[in-house]
Here is the input.
Amino acid sequence: MRTKRIISAGRSLVAAAVMAAAAALGAPGAQAQAKSSVSIGVVNDFAGWNPYADSTAQMYMIWCQTYGCLGTFDTRTGDYEGILAERWEVSKDNPNEWTFYLKKGIKRHNDGKELTAEDVIHSLWRNKNDPRTAQANNTRPVTEAIAVDKYTVKFITSQPTAPLLAFLFDRLIITGKDLYKKYGQDVDRKAPWGYGPYQVKDIVVGQRMVLEKNEAWPGIKKENPDRLIFRRIKEDEARVTALFNGELQMAQFIPPHLVDRVKSAPGVTLKSTSPVEVMFLAMNPNFKPWDNKKVRQAVAYAINREAIVKAIFRGGAEVLHGPIGPGQYGYSPDVEPKYAYNPEKAKQLLKEAGYPDGVEIDFYTATNRYINDRQSSEAIVPMLQAVGFKVRFHTPEYSSHWPLVRKGKRPFYYQGRGSVIDPSAMLVQYFGTEGTPRIGYSNPKLDALLEAQEREFDSAKRQALLLEAFNIVQEEVPAFFLWRIQQHYGISNRIEFTPMATDRVYGLDILVKN
Amino acid sequence: MLAYVIRRVAGTIPVIILISLLVFMLVQAAPGDPADLLLSDEATAEDVADARARWGLDQPVWVQYWKFLTAALQGDLGTSFRYADPVLTMIAERLPATIELAVVSIIIAVVIAVPLGVWAGARPNSWIDNLGSLVGLFGISMPNFWFGIMLILVMSGILNLLPSSGRDTYGIAGDPITGFYLLDSVIKGNWRGLWDGLAHIAMPAIALGTNMMGILMRVTRSSVMEVMHEEYVTTARAKGVSERAVLWHHVVRNALVPIVTVVGLELGTLLSGSIIVETVFSWPGSGQLLISAITSRDYPLITGTVLTYTMAFVIINFTVDILYAAIDPRIRFDK
Here is the structure.
């Protein structure tokens, strides 16, 4: 009898321990039963509480849904949508004058103070002048802001800028003017109160960001998670494991070699985005032999992109014909030339360029920056060699490679450009004479076209100008556009979510199933 | 003894200054510019120039170093480029996590390795000795990042017993008191927090401690074997002291000096190993901080963190030296 009792006592002890363990280890939010909580595994490090200090898609996503921004680009509908702004317009008489009408009655977290035009103007000022800002380039076209009334704000640009929304939406973070006055630079830690659908609860650098639902947000659903926990798990294996065992409900950026494991795992769905990051080979004409257009074209004909997409990316990438692809603003299937794989032609072009015996080149690919960066470049090398290039292949660390690219000191490199919704900024940045020295290409005709399309507010006319610009880039090949890589998300069947090409994970887009 | 301590402390000052100079120069010499790395992809040359001026990078290196040194002597290691917080505060926030991980690793290593090593050394070529050799070999040859990933795959993935990464589950810990999560939980009587902390620290501590365990086990074994042949052991046996008492009172005490040395030396390895293990397990310690500082070329943060590690090495070596005297009365530092 006595032994039995001891055994049963022992059993219940074990049971209690197991339960405690389950509570401690299991689903986050186990202590608050009624609250739904969704944990998301992210990759990038972040600078902390200051909403102007990071310039990454990941952090724009955090700040935009907490502090709030004027609007967002929904890659699923292909259109801009207001968040804090209800609507916006460009003046018919003055293309430098943009008016944004704020939604009325947007209340701030915690103290309920209403959002006004003054806060937007303050935010523009902070974006440009915060000692830690890394985002000032987003608002460079805007030189002045005027509060027309409590809910209306005017932005004045230095020159007509048709793609202005691509700079401001998802990126200009709106913070409270009075709070900044009260707390100064400490405001982000002491009063991280914004206007968005979620509220900043906790930020631990290198570890996690915790957001809580703002019940007062108009139209917020019961099924939207009460709490979002963004956990930084850099290691791919660890992130995927955490997804499988239920610690995470979503894992961003599953690498291609783990895709099959996620697909076959129970309770988890793999979803992929149509990509907005374009990958290309940059050829700087300030270096020999890249000063010769025929050599650049030879590269374009030498590479069998279809084979690389199939073998290296396992189909998780799309071959690009021109600087952008379907779904990105201004895409046209009529772009010319398209460069089908043709090694004979490549050899011929090299010969015509004066290199009948081939030519030595240095090829740089920074590693661990883009998906399968090293592997895809390693596949490019023999293709270039087959047509006569004698390739010295270098794989520097990104931190030492990138500054040299920025200074225009790398002749030939593999590079990506993310967040290309509207191609204008990218084209100016890489190919405009006034852009960056990264490629060092200069062509007055292209410059004129790029400027004209920026000033053109008629969408059809603007797209026609863009197509002309694309054709010049294709013909001249200062960069050869290769492919767009899909991003893969692992998503628990407990939630409903469709990832966006811009990699924004907004709590409003997540529904928790019961 | 006191004179020795003073001499040792005085001796470390030039070492630390020299290291600070070395780190400062090396970091600046490394390719890669923080302004290029920290500003957005769309930043212009003008933005880059602004940032460089703000961080003082537009001044000559020796001016920068002098500013750093004079500030450092007043207890200010500068402000991080990336995080804009004082470097000292950031390290103080992160160091407890690393120390906690190291301490638990050492405990795991010592608790397994020392008894196993003593036993194996006392009974060479027995089954326990063979088992010990196997454990030792495993520990020494296992790369800790690989072992860490395997632990995650098996313990969290297949068995689903332990959380895969991180230091705690959100919402359980409460406000920190000392920054040592396990200690805080005990102080507050937060048993759920303690359990949560132990569950999170188990895998990184094992991954980090395995190497030390292997080495420690081997050193203990050979040290015990050596002492077993000393004459005083034979004497003790001849007096009729039980074998057990001989082993634990006479042999182990004398075998301790090399063991303590190895623990001390290995602590250094443990600190550098923690940089990798922290990355694998997303452990928010100073090693992870150092990695992100290096990838963003955050000069003040790199210098500050490396200096902290240097200090740690110096202090550990010093402590080990002092411990010798405590363990072995024959060792004296006077004169």
In short: Residues 2-73 of chain B form one domain. Chain B touches chain A through 54 residues (CB under 8 Å). Chain B has two domains: 2-73, 95-327.
